[in-house]
Every structure is written in structure tokens, then in C-alpha cells.
Design a protein that fits this description.
270 residues, alpha+beta, eight-stranded mixed β-sheet
Amino acid sequence: MIQKLFEKDYFLSKNQAIVIEPRTPQPVYPEHTHDFNEIVIVTDGFGKHIINGHLYHLYPGMMFYVHATDSHLYEHVKNLHLTNILFKMPDKFTFINNINTLIPNHKNENSHYFLDKKCNDKIKKLVFELNDSTLNAPAYKESLFLQLLILLKENQYVEDGSGSSDQRVNQLLRWLQIHFKEQIDWALIAEKFALSSRTLHRKMKSEMNITPQRYLTKLRLAEAYFQLHYTESNITTIAQNCGFNDSSYFSTCFKNEFHITPKELRDNPS
């Protein structure tokens, strides 16, 4: 049975529209829904986040939205630290309105992405103020939340290869989240985002503890996990759909990642 979390257990009053809930660390947590929304920022550690059946690998600097009707869970966590920004439905805000355009919908590809360092520093300051118990003015808290939404909107993916090297690495990672099923030429992709292959490898290894190729493989395996659960395609077709040309290699990678073979998952989806 899926657990449901209620705003009455987190919000102190009807006038309170935003609450900061740190998870330091975030434990494994079973599948659940809410009657409120969340913006989640990964501040440290790693884990797997499954939302509406889709699997996402979590890394420091990543953020994502969870809508009230979404069903999600956390598993395989490793020192995972999260900042959860809980907020009520937009029509329950008193001083700001029409914020729906700033929040990705359920199918929007920008619902999960990486924050660049400059944006992350600004968000930390806003979160600190939102969490300041001495500042109780609802109008001020809602104005801070609006600034937060605008910052996140501005930090969404733009495929132009501009900005600092940190921003360009994030653009490349976001590009991979969209194009991971394609054949990838790392030299061409690095050139596309005005990065050297060495810089890309160094930044990903130091900040995410993962190589570019391993990150790509994880994206492909996550999609395969979803297709094995929710489609009737055969395993070979799923492997090809997800960018694997060799089904035996796909099965080996899948078992290394999930400790179960694709066939075992297909036969026992629970």
C-alpha cells in the first residue's frame, strides 16, 4: 500500500505556504505520495529516486520537482543529503499567483536537472532565509519563494554551449539526459559544449564521482528498468532502444547495476 503524507503534519498553520525540511541524511523511504508539492535539492551523497516508475540516479547538485500527485521513493542511498522545499498548491498562496508557469509539469523534461554553482549559492541563501524562524511574515516568505522559482527556471537547460565551464558541463549532462539513446562520440559532444574531454572527465569525476561513459550507461540502464516494468517489448528490443547494441553486454551491465538480470526483473516485476 502506498503511503500518503499530509500537509497538516508539516505546515504549522493555514497561512504557511512553504516549509523547509532537511533530510541529513535521507534514509531509504518507501513509495509515497503527498497532498503538497516539493522541490528537492541534493546537497551530498548518492542514491536512486524512482518517481512514477521512472528511475533517476541522484548526484550532488541535482534538483527535481515532485508534484502532489506523483508517487515516488528513495532506495540504494549512500550518504544522501537532501533539502526538501515543501509548498502547498499554488491557489493556497496569498501574496503571489500564476506561479504554475514557473513549475515544470509532470512530463516536462526539465523536471530533473543540475544546478550550476552560482545558482546553487543563490539558492542556499534563499533557503536559509525561508528557514529562518524569526522571519514569519508570509508575504516576505512567498516573495523569497518566487525568487527561488525564477532562479530555477533560469537555470533550466539551454543548448548553446555558453557560460562558465561549470554551466557548460551542466548543459552537456542535460543534453545526455535527453539524447542518451543515441550513439555518442565524446570528442564531438565535448566540442559541441566548448569543453575538452579532459575537463569534462575531471569535473565529473571530482564532483559526481563518475566518468562520463559510466554516467551515460546509468541513464540507459534507468530507461531499460522502466521499459522492463511498463512495456511488453522483449529484452533485446529494450536493449537496442536504450542504446545497447549487444544484448549480452546489456544484461551484464544491468545485473551489475541492479543486482538482478533483465529476465529476472521481467519475470518478477514486484
